[in-house]
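Curious: why these numbers?
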Amino acid sequence: MTESTAAEIPADEAYLAQFRQRLGLPGLVDVHTHFMPHRVLRKVWAYFDSAGPLTGRPWPITYRAEEPIRLAALRRFGVRAFTALVYPHRPDMAAWLNDWTAKFAAEVPDCLHTATFFPEPAAADYVPAALDQGARVFKAHVQVGAYDPRDPLLTSVWGTLSDAAVPTVIHCGSGPAPGAFTGPGPIAEILRQFPRLRLIVAHMGMPEYREFLDLADRYPGVHLDTTMAFTDFAEDTAPFPPADRQRLAALGDRIMFGSDFPNIPYPYRHAVQALERLDLGDEWLRAVCYGAAARLFALD
C-alpha cells in the first residue's frame, strides 16, 4: 500500500460516514469501479504512470494497493455495491475476462457481477453465456477498444442486452481525448435501433455532456454516471456547462454515482464533495448516490 493510500482512507471513511448519516443513506452504490486480473490492472497503472496519450497529464493512482486492501477500503467508505469493470482492447480477450469476473463476483458478494464484450464473432455466444451465469452489468470501452459500437458483430449483442434489460456502462464520450468512434453520434444510431437498451454513459459523456443529456431525455433507458465529472481534475479541462446544471436535477433518477476507483488522481471523498457543491439538494444526492442504482439493480 502506498503512502497516499494509507493517508487518504481514514479521511475518506470519516467524511463519507458523516455524509451518509446526514442523508440517511444505507450506503453508497458505486457503478464505476475497476477490479481486474492482477497483470491487467498493473498494465493499466503503468499506462497512467506514463501519462499516456489519452491523458497527456500526470495521473497519480491514489489507491494503488493490493486487492484485499482495495476491497476493504470500499467497505470502509460505506459502499454497499460496486462493479468490476473490465474491458478488452483486442479480440479473444473478453471471454477470458468474463470468466475472471464471474469467479470474482462469486467470491465478493457486494460486487455486481460484471461482464464485457468486443466486436468479434464469439460475442454472440459469450454474452448470452455471461447472462446465464448471472451477469448484472456489462462494460464497453469504445475509446480504449477503438471499435465502432455500430459494428455488425455487435448487433446481436445489443439486441440480447436490450431484451435482457441488463445495463452496459459505456465509455463513449470523447474525453479525455477523442477516438475514431467516440461521441454521441454512434450511440444515437444504436438507440434508434434498440430504443429500450439500458446504457449507463460513463463520465456523464464528458466532454459532450449536453448531447448525452439530450439522449437521456429522448430514451428512458439511458442513464449517466458521475465518474470524474464535476471534480477539480475534470473541471480544469472539461468543465460541465453551468447552463445545464438544472437538467441534472430533472434526471436525478437516472444519474448514478461513479468514482473510477482505484484509478483516480484525487481522494475518493472528493468525488462526493464535487456532487455536493452542485447544490442540487439532498433528495438529488440521495438518488444519485444510492437510490437510482439501487432501483436499477434491485438492491432493496
User: Anything to note?
Assistant: The mean pLDDT is 96. The first helix runs from residue 3 to 23.
